[in-house]
Amino acid sequence: MRLIIGLGNPGLRYANTRHNLGSTFVDYFAESKSLVFSFQARHETYLAQNTSLMIAKPVNFMNNSGSTVRSLVNFYKIDLDDLFIVHDDLDLTLGDFKIQKGTGPKDHNGVNSVESSLGSIDFWRIRIGADNRTPDNQISGEEYVLMPFSEFELTVVKNLLPTIAKRLNENIPA
Fold first, then answer.
1. 108 an active-site residue?
2. How far apart are CA 160 and CA 49, in angstroms?
3. Could you confirm whether the keyword Transmembrane appears in this record (predicted)?
4. Contacts of 146 (CB under 8 A, 6+ apart)
5. Is this structure's pTM higher than 0.85?
6. Is the pLDDT of residue 112 over 60?
7. Which residue of 16, 23, 57, 141 has the fewest CB atoms within a 10 Å radius of its CB?
8. DSSP secondary structure string, the chain?
9. Among the options 19, 43, 87, 108, which is catalytic?
10. Of the candidates 57, 81, 78, 84, which has an alpha carbon nearest to the alpha carbon of residue 68?
């Protein structure tokens, strides 16, 4: 069983922000597989699944997402080789992505929470580029990730999601 978890922040206030790219992707991916999310209070998450795949969207804030990840991994006995954490990444330019195991951004509190809760860095990361700052627009990363995308940036994201899904599908059965 593969487990894909999209990191983000709950609530409409954070919809269409860079920090919610993980949640945005898993919404797209679940829909592409005709899977429907249902709330699982035990794990503080929305969960969609079939016989070979589970997709989760934690309802806690990004920086506390590790507890949900640990709960799902332990309850469903998920091997870390089958765990994919999807998140925004300011080390990558908007429109880029990387799927890597055991490595990620220099500093990401959501990923740090997952690593700390699991006691391991040995899981897959789907790193979605979020940085579109220019030299004259150098605001802090903490502020920037909580800002909504422009219409142009949303188009870039929407065009990128199928490419990420295709790469992921190469490794995950339908």
1. no
2. 23
3. no
4. 9, 14, 17, 18, 19
5. yes
6. yes
7. 16
8. -EEEEE----SGGGTTBGGGHHHHHHHHHHHHTT---EEEGGGTEEEEE-SSEEEEEESS-GGGTHHHHHHHHHHTT--GGGEEEEEEEEEEETT-EEEEES---S--HHHHHHHHHHT---SEEEEEEEE---TT----HHHHTTSBPPHHHHHHHHHHHHHHHHHHHTTS--
9. 19
10. 57
Q: What burial class does residue 22 get, using C-beta atoms within 10 Å of its C-beta: 0-12 exposed, 13-18 middle, 19+ buried?
A: buried
Whether 174 is covered by a domain: the verdict is no
Rounded to 5 degrees, what are φ and ψ at 173? -65, 155
Residue listed under structure tokens 């922040």:
9
Q: How confident is the model at residue 138 (pLDDT cuts 50, 70, 90)?
A: confident
Mean pLDDT of 87-96: 95
User: pLDDT tens-digit profile of 10-58?
Assistant: 999 999 999 999 999 999 999 999 999 999 999 999 999 999 999 999 9
Let me know if residue 11 belongs to a domain.
Answer: yes
Query: Tell me, what CATH number does 51's domain have?
Result: 3.40.50.1470
Given pLDDT bands bounded at 50, 70 and 90, which one contains residue 82?
A: very high
